[in-house]
Amino acid sequence: MCLFDNYDQVHCNFSGGKDSIALVLLLLYGYKVPKEKLVLVHMRVDGPEENKAFFDWEETDDYLKYCSEKLGMPLIMLASDISLKERIEMRGMWPSSAMQFCTSYMKRDTYSKWARTLGPGKYLCVRGERADESSRRAKKKVFEIYKHANASTKKRYVDWLRPVHHLLETEVWELMRLAGIDPHPCYEYVSRCSCKFCIFLSPTEMAKVAELHPFDFNELVEMEKRMGHTMRYKKSTLFR
């Protein structure tokens, strides 16, 4: 029996980035998971769809719909009541590699809240994290119980799997090429499909995004002034 046969539904955490697409392709064509068991689940960090994109790329909503149609799979859009921009200003600090509350609040907790509304059943949350990306991701477990959404007393069981943890970046791009799926437009400017102003962008990539979105970048600078904190997670000395 295949691992996936044990679950009523498989939730594919779907950013629209290359790894999340490779994840779905591997499930469909590698593990032969029935398409009707798969759901694309996207967490929008700027809040509900009616909110203007700030940290999200403006192209993402349309790109997700393109992928949903191309893959022939339903898409569920989730969002926290508080946007990432609001969350940052409330905390008075930026996320960092050691404290990625952008991920914990805007993605993990948002998904968990939605998963807890589901009825009894066995659900599998799959994510496109790869060991090749960083030493931190290389140490992550491939399989674990999703404690934030699991509730045995309600007969709701949620597990977490990273099926593409072993894949190399070249293999991910090849899967997309073979499936005939165009990459997210952001890859023309940055190496990762994450927040538009992600803390992990290189200085060159951040400069390019600032050039593309000068108004939003200026607001980013104003946020640094208001908080006295820079995106590099150091006390700001630029505006004293």
CATH class: Alpha Beta
Query: How many individual domains?
Result: 1
- What CATH architecture label applies? 3-Layer(aba) Sandwich
**Any idea what the shape is?**
globular
Number of strands: 6
Average pLDDT level:
92
Low-confidence stretches: 233-240
Strand content: 5-15%
Name the CATH superfamily assignment.
Answer: HUPs
Identify the strand order in the major beta sheet: 3-2-1-4-6-5
Cα Rg: 18 Å
Instruction: Please trace the helix and strand order, writing H or E for each element.
Output: EHEHEHHEHEEHHH
Helix content: 25-40%
- Summarize the biggest pleated sheet: 6 strands, mixed
SS summary, helix count: 8
Could you say which structural class the secondary elements and strand pairing correspond to? Answer: alpha/beta
State the separation between the terminal residues, measured CA to CA.
63 Å
CATH topology: Rossmann fold
InterPro entries: PAPS_reduct_dom (IPR002500), Rossmann-like_a/b/a_fold (IPR014729), Sulfate_adenylyltrnsfr_sub2 (IPR050128)
Organism: Cytobacillus oceanisediminis
Pfam family, one: PAPS_reduct
Domain Phosphoadenosine phosphosulphate reductase: 12-188
Compact overview of the structure:
By secondary structure, the chain is α/β, with parallel strands linked by helices. The protein has 8 helices and 6 strands; from the N terminus they run βαβαβααβαββααα.
